[in-house]
Structures are given as structure tokens and as C-alpha cells.
Amino acid sequence: MSHYYIKSPEDYAAAYQKSTEDPEGFWAEIAEHFQWMKKWDSVLSWDFDGPDVRWFNDAQLNITENCLDRHLEERSDELALIWEPNEPSEDSIQFTYGQLHEEVCRYANVLKKNGVNKGDRVAIYLPMIPDLAIATLACARIGAVHSIVFAGFSAQALADRINDAQASAVLTSDGMYRGNKKLPVKAIVDEALEHCPSVHTVLVSRRTDEEVPMQAERDRFLADELKTVPSSCPAEPMDSEDMLFILYTSGSTGKPKGVVHSCGGYMVYAAFSFQNVFQYAAGDIYWCSADIGWITGHSYILYGPLLNAATTMMFEGVPTYPDAGRFWEICDKYQVNQFYTAPTAIRALMAQGDKHVEKAQLDSLKVIGSVGEPINEEAWQWYHDKVGKGRCPVVDTWWQTETGGIMISGLGPHSPMKASHAGLPLPGIQTILLDQEGREILENEVEGYLCVKFPWPSMLRTTYGDHERCKNTYFSNYPGHYFTGDGAKRDADGLYRIIGRVDDVINVSGHRFGTAEIENALNQDQRVAESAVVGYPHDIKGQGIYAYVILKDPIDAGSAMENSLVESVVRGIGKIARPDKIQFVPGLPKTRSGKIMRRILRKIAEGEASSLGDTSTLLDPGVVEIIKAGAL
Ligand code: WTA
Which of 250, 507, 511 to mutate to test the pocket of ligand 1 (most atoms within 8 A of CB)? Predict the structure, then answer.
């Protein structure tokens, strides 16, 4: 019997047991499910001190052959991808496996023709149009490393990512639609590229048909290029440990880092986790509402579903356009069977009342999922009752950009389900909780730092260009373990409930930001002496951004200054990181050694200034009273 398909709690127990007793045997069996150009010599070698983790050593494969070619014989005419546009009146676009295969091959040939080679890094800055999916797979087809940058990031943020990866090409569009807005995209790329000497090629997809300036040597319209290339392109043989993609994500310190995923392990785990969490069955229509610019879109719009020959949807628009019923109309229109979204969207729609969701049938749904941040009980219940109509299991999936795939979650209906609890780890995932001293807590009904003590196939391999940083961020706090940065509880039955980040990362509407990153953007304004950013609970976004700012000259304080600081953050990162509250302060609570006491700032931002605890070790306890008095 294969453990690839888990169909009962007993299957889960057996798979989990096998995966811990004989991890290599377990994963070898799962990996047999795929097409390899050459089989592995060894399943796993690892060392968390390096860290140096290798899965399916010396094997060769191409992930697109497994996503596309492998299905052609039997499923060439079945739907691979359904694209739903922003405007409900516009026609949707659908691709069969045969068509998607051809589109990817053509795009891959365009890349080759434009001098993109195996191993080159390619930045993709595209809105949610089919070309985003096609371009991504085209890179993988020829062994170029894709680095997708969410199209809501600013020119500066894009430039930082392009430069860090030394990308040679950028794949983009003229513009984009989002709700009732038409927004520029190419113009942002042009601005970014003023500072990116490594880029020699820009390919531009048409979406809005706006006039866009083109640089003769560098820029090409994709449509023109596609006419000049053949429709078949062999899949490049990749070593299992070759880089598949880089995805930038924020951490506690410094600039966002490029999380690196490799080909073989990522493929195996994205596929296995997709199949089992969503319990996909042939003929089902699966929809994940995330953007492909985030890891959720990589693993669970593109790779996971396509590896399982699923029909996957992508949606260009937003949940509230033309009204708050859009998600539910789409579910009914396509008879969606599995729906996967973020708590922030659920809370935003819940806040609009029940009339929209009650208008929809939603009777095709079988499994509904949540991802990206803790889901509070009220939102969980509403999702379960109103969207899932009390019938559908809610899979609350905990994972990270770094983990590549879902780590803790229910498997469709085959797992215990408890509101706001992610539940049990997937087979192969050895999650543990550590106490303050870094000792593993073996009992249940406890709380601790969430770590993983054994490698899994889709774990990050490094942070691009800086392996030390990978080691320091994830493998040094608790030597011998991967540290997630999250705190979690484990209940009497062993079910995990994620509490949230225990580091200086905040999660705003499911988007990760380092507080230092936002502070850097604020400090770009010459009038700022110093700033400190913390998160605070926000009804819709989960966390809001609260910035404390010391001005060089306090006279500048006021709404004009606030606006210009918000602009600074929008310029440095993007609208998604816009601070919710800015408080001008004369000083910050610091220890005698000059370290900012964020705990105190967090309490004040949370409106719990009465329980600050001991402030006597501060350099200037008086400043706390002033900050408290001015709290927003
Ligand atoms: C948080 C998104 C609670 C967590 C896939 C993690 C969650 C960070 C959940 C990773 C969940 C993600 N419940 N918290 N189901 N899923 N998180 O890299 O803090 O964008 O560390 O990956 O989101 O965010 P990332």
C-alpha cells in the first residue's frame, strides 16, 4: 500500500509512524510516484549545524515534466488552469494540460532566445494573469531560477530583490487591474531598473494595453516574441538539489532574505501535502485565492495541484469587488470543491454581514482551508458555519515560506478538528516544542517555541548568497533544530495551536514584515532621528503596524509629517506595509545598554499600558509615562 494517499485516521497514523521509524524508506516510496530522469543514490543526508540538507541525492528531474508532460498521455484535454478575471463580465480563460504544456514550452523558448540560461535568476513581477503561471513554469522548464516578487511591492523593494539575486531578466506586464483600479506595473519595473545593472532583458505581457515606454535593447513585448519560437521545448535535466526558486521573505533583522528551495524535495513535498490536506479527487475544481507572489501561491496554486493533475484556479481580483459576494459567486460559478484562503479575507467578508454568503449555494465545497496567520475562533466558526455550511472540514494549515509546504494541518475529514487549532503535523514532519532553555517539552497541555527536529523534503536549503544568515536565523537559536520563529500550544490530544511570532516579525493581513524593515523605510526621511515599530491586534488585519517616531525637530510633528512618513514606507516597501498608527515621541524606552525595550512598546500599542511590569532598569523611565499619555 502506498502512503501517498491518506484516506483515514488509521492511514495517517500508519504513515506518521513509518515516516519517523524509517524516514528514508517513507520518502523513497512517496518519491516513486514521480518521473525521474535519473533515480537517487541516497534518499537523505543531513546536518543541521551546516546546515547541509540533501534529498534524493544525485537524482535528476524536471518539475515541469512532472507538472505537465507526465499527464499528457491520459489528461491532455482535461483542465489544468482556470483563470477568473477581475471584472465578472470579462471572459475567463481556461487551459487544458495540453494547452498549458504548449504555452510553457513557448515561453521557455522565448527565454532561451533572449539569453536566459540554466542557473540564471529571473525576477517575475507580474499581476495575477495566466502569464504569471506560465512564466514561472517556463523558468523551471529551462532550469532558470525564478524569483517572484509580489506585484504590490514598490520599485525600491523590487530593485533590492533583483540586485540581491543578480537577476538577468525581468518578466512583467504593462499594467494591472485590481478591484476598481487600473495600476501601472511596467513603470514600476522601469523605476527599479534604474538601479539594477544585472538585468539585460525585460519581457512585457499585455494586460491593460496602456502605452508603455520600451527600451530598444532591453524590452520586448511577449506576444511578438512568442510568434518567433517553436512550440516544443525539452525539459532541462536538473539535479535534485539544484535551485528551483528563490522567494524573498522578511525576518527579524535587516533586509528580506532570499529563501532558496531546491528541485527534488520541494516537488515531492508540495505534491504530497497538497494531495492529502485537500483530499483532491480527479475531476475536482480547486481554488486557492492567494497570489502566486507568495509561497502559498507557489506551492498551492501552481506546483502542488499541477503535480497531482488537478484543475487549479487563479483569480485576478479582490474579495470585495464588485461586492463582498465575489468569492462565493466564483465558488458557485465553477463549482469549486476545495477552497483555500486567509483569515484576513474571512474577517473582512464576515464584517460585511451574512447576506452575501447566504445568497450563494456553496454546495460543491468539500474542504475549506485557512493559511497565513492564526485564525481567531469567531472567524473560524463563521467560516465553518457560513461558508462550509457546517459540512466541510476546515483545514487550518500552518507553514512558512521556509518550510515550502504545509507542516501542521488536518487532512480533509480524516483528522480531529478543533477551532483555531492547526492540529497534527503531517507525516514526515517532526514538530516539537522547546522551553526557554531549549529543552524539548514532551508532555501535552503546554506552550513553547515551535521547532522541527528532523529534515523534511521541502525545507529551505539556504538564504541566497548568505549561508551564514540561514544558519544564524534558523539553526543557531536551538542547535540541532530548525527554529520557526513561532510560539505554539499543544493540547491534551497533541493538537497544535499557533500563537504567533515570538521574534520581531509582524504578520499584517497574512503578509510578513520585519519591524526593522519598516523602521529602515521610516528612517529614510531625513527628519527622523529614530523609530521603533511594533504590531498590535487589529480586527481585520490580524496585526496592525504601530510606529513610534522620534523627530530631530519636534516642531515637525503633525499630520503632514505623518503622511510623508507613510509615503516613505510605501516607497520603500509598498502599500501593503503602510503604518496604521504613527505616534511622535520624545524618546524610546531603552535599557542602559541602549537596547529598545519592545515589550513595553508592544504593551502600550496593545492598549495594556497598565501592565507594563518592571521599568526600573530603563535608562529613562520617565519617557514611558510620556509615551503612555500620548498613546493612540
Ligand atoms: C504565520 C505563509 C497561524 C506564522 C504560508 C508563520 C500561521 C508565518 C499559519 C509564515 C496558521 C502561517 N496559523 N499562523 N495556519 N500559517 N502562519 O512565510 O507566524 O508568509 O511563521 O508563509 O505565518 O508566513 P509566510
Answer: 507
Nearest CA to ligand 1 atom 10: 400
pLDDT per position as a tens digit, 259-274: 999 999 999 999 999 9
191 vs 198, 217, 510, CA distance in Å?
Answer: 15, 17, 27
Q: Say if residues 277 and 409 touch (Cβ distance below 8 Å).
A: yes
> How far is residue 532's CA from residue 86's CA, in Å, rounded to a whole number?
37
User: CA distances (Å), 474 to each of 258, 259, 371, 460, in order?
Assistant: 13, 11, 21, 10
Q: Could you identify the residue written with the cell 479575507?
A: 345
Peptide bond into 393 cis (omega under 30): no
Looking at residue 252, what is its pLDDT? Answer: 85
Interval between CA 400 and ligand 1 midpoint (Å): 5
CA angle 73, 78, 82 (to 5 degrees): 135
Q: Write out pLDDT tens, residues 203-224.
A: 999 999 999 999 999 999 999 9
Structure confidence at residue 1 as a pLDDT band (50, 70, 90):
low
Dump pLDDT digits (tens) for 144-193: 999 999 999 999 999 999 999 999 999 999 999 999 999 999 999 999 99
Domains recognised in the chain with CATH numbers: 68-78+95-236 (3.40.50.980), 509-630 (3.30.300.30)
Confirm if 502 and 489 have CB atoms less than 8 A apart.
Answer: no
Please name the residues in contact with 439: beta carbons below 8 A apart, sequence gap of 6 or more. Answer: none
DSSP sequence for 361-428? --TT--EEEEESSPPPHHHHHHIIIIISTTTSPEEEEB--GGG-S--B---TTSS---TT--BSBPTT
Give the contacts of 68 (CB within 8 A, at least 6 positions apart). Answer: 80, 97, 100, 101, 104, 137, 306
User: CA torsion 348→350→356→359, rounded to 10°?
Assistant: 150
Which residue has cell 518567433? 228
